[in-house]
Amino acid sequence: MIGILITTLIYLKKRDLKKLFNDKEQEYLYQQAINNGEKRFLKFNDNVSIIRTFPETGIYFTISSIIYSSDGQYAFLYVGVFQDLDYFGKTFLIFKKDSKGWDQIYIEKDIIL
Q: Confidence band (pLDDT; 50, 70, 90) for 35?
């Protein structure tokens, strides 16, 4: 999952991140993604549960730790969707902090049906 988050940041670096962040900040975000080793899994059986190991069966979501920009004004979150170890898609979100809280300013969805 960390690889997908890094790949997403690299892809955005080529496109949209250049509009939001200078080269120094892009490198900072890339390094944060590399060092972001913590992840959680939401597993769906009869109930939804949070687990820390990679499940081999069922439908589950992987959720990255939140990565913040160096100034704390932007937050990045990656969510992956899997079923029985098969990849079904991802959602990548960017939020911007304002006086009222956090606003979602970017979403990239890639779902395989």
A: confident
Q: Which residues contact 101 (CB under 8 A, 6 or more apart)?
A: none
Kindly report, residue by residue over 70-81, the tens digit of the pLDDT: 999 998 888 888
Domain hosting residue 94, numbered range: 2-111
Cα-Cα-Cα-Cα dihedral of 7, 10, 14, 16, to 10°? Answer: 90
- Cβ atoms of 32 and 41 within 8 Å: the answer is no
- Position 43 pLDDT exceeds 80: no
Domain count, the chain: 1
